[in-house]
Amino acid sequence: MSISTGNGRLVERPEVHSLLVSETTPDQRVGAAAWVDEQLAAGAKVFYKSRPCDWGGDDPRWLVGPAGSSCARWAFRTGQLEIRDFAEVIDLAGGTTRGLRELQAAEVARGLDEGWPRLAMSQESASRPLADDAEIAEYAEQEAGYDELARRWPLTTLCQLTLAHESSPAAWEIAGLHSGDIVDHQWSAAWSDGRWHVRGELDVTVVGRFSAALDGALRQCLHSEDDPTLRIDASGIEFLDVGSAQSLMLAGYAAARRQRIVVHGARDSVRNVVTAVGRPPSLSFTAETSVPR
Amino acid sequence: MTTTSWAGSSSLEHVGYVYDSTTGFARGVLSQVRAVLGAGGQVSAVVDPGEAETLQDALGPGSAITFTPPAELEDSNSLFFDHLRDVARAPRGLVLAQYSVFGIPDGRLRRGEDDINRQLAHLPVTLICACSTTAASTRLATAHGVHPRLLVDGIVRDNAAYRPADAVVQAGSGTPILGLTFRGPADLHHIRGHVRAVVSAAGLDDAAVDAHVVAVHEAALIVANRLPDRPGAPEPCELDMWATDTAITAEIRAPRSAEIAASSPPPEGLEYVRLFCWHAASFDAAGTYGVRVLTRRSHPRP
């Protein structure tokens, strides 16, 4: 599976719960439409949740309008693609996370009953403030619901973060909760073989989300039962600027006492920037890139 | 040139000293301190309590060394300069200043060090500035960049990494290899690609290409961050690069924001730019603010 980042770049994704970050609504639509087309072509039934007009979405059914694809329009007519806007979803779910999870489970059950071999869900940026711990916990529970469904059923989920619609704190929380699989303009990250594979170019335009995702990856490792070390496969990092290196340095200082960060396979250029900025004792480099057995 | 004594010198000796531990600190400077005290000169140490204790123990009771509280000197450069003048009495005195005791940002420290070189060059005093190997990389870069000489293994040597404040990076000489306009950080992804392509074609080796790309990126960020804050599209920034047989020069410039005075101190980020090139300097002229980056070829072109 691949995700278009909206700037013409395709990123190969093996994961089932991803976050697509876009700067603007037009960028978001390019990426989302390409993902939906791919799911439809793979034979999946797609459940798409869009922003209503009064949330800054000019047409909740843009996907099957002129901005969408003929494939999506055909799938909408045949029932392979279902679109609901957030107002309708909130109404059906009773405005609760539990209600939302029940709605999603019902959609999965219905899709399977209809005989679809695969299912896919995506939802546009929801403009949740995520300003306090209780709301962040609710959001985390909602996201965990997708993972739970994916463990039981052949479900792929694409969450969307459109920066034009979200506050900086919300973008931080959303990126942190999706550290497992994030596609953000010129960089991406995903877990594979026990390592956090980071690819692309990390600079000032993405450093906030990179820091958030790095924080999320550290937290995920901390909950590991055996070794809490965060192993970053950096062989795919093509550029790292000073601000991004500082994020890595600060993550090293902020990591829990028993936690370490090991950076695997970094290019000399990446290593040099980190070394120049400052490498905390908890952060080390190794040339080794293969996964130990 | 190397030396172990400044007895014959009648001007400022501004020496950098990088040490790795408290005991290493004292061991490295002890012979210099003893030599000055032995000649009847004044020694003032502006150091942390740990280093003060180690020095005092090493010199023994009754030593004439003076420990000057950093708080008496750190409020302004002029207080520190006055202290240097006080110590600069015959016979030649020594001030031992430890970076870590001064709670000032890198930009101000760099400016103060440059001012010492410029304004106090005639002063018959020795100033040893000590920086720990565990200091931030930018502070270590300052220690290496502002001192004409370094104290290494008890011996003072000429410092090849010294970059005088008046070593202005000249732009416009050589063959133009790039001229671009960009409108802010979002364009830097593309700018980096162009810079990489032209400096590779200009013959820099891979490591120098990587470092130059980082230096230009960070310099461009400094300039973009100083753009006037106006509604609408931001003012364009301009990037020009030139190549000679010995170096590659980049100049990034943009209109200066009215809120930023021409006399305002150099931005902190310049210290980071300097980590990745031979020299970098900011300039401010006729309402234009800019940064120039110079990368020297490791092997000059024949």
TrEMBL record, chain A:
User: Which Pfam family, an example, fits this chain?
Assistant: STAS_2
Coiled-coil regions listed in the entry: none
InterPro entries, A to Z: MlaB-like_STAS, STAS_dom_sf
Q: The MlaB-like STAS domain covers which part of the protein?
A: 197-278
Source organism's superkingdom?
Answer: Bacteria
Question: Under what name is this protein listed?
Answer: STAS domain-containing protein
According to its UniProt entry, this protein's organism is Actinomycetospora endophytica
Automatic annotation (TrEMBL), chain B:
Q: Which domain of life is it from?
A: Bacteria
Descriptive protein name? Uncharacterized protein
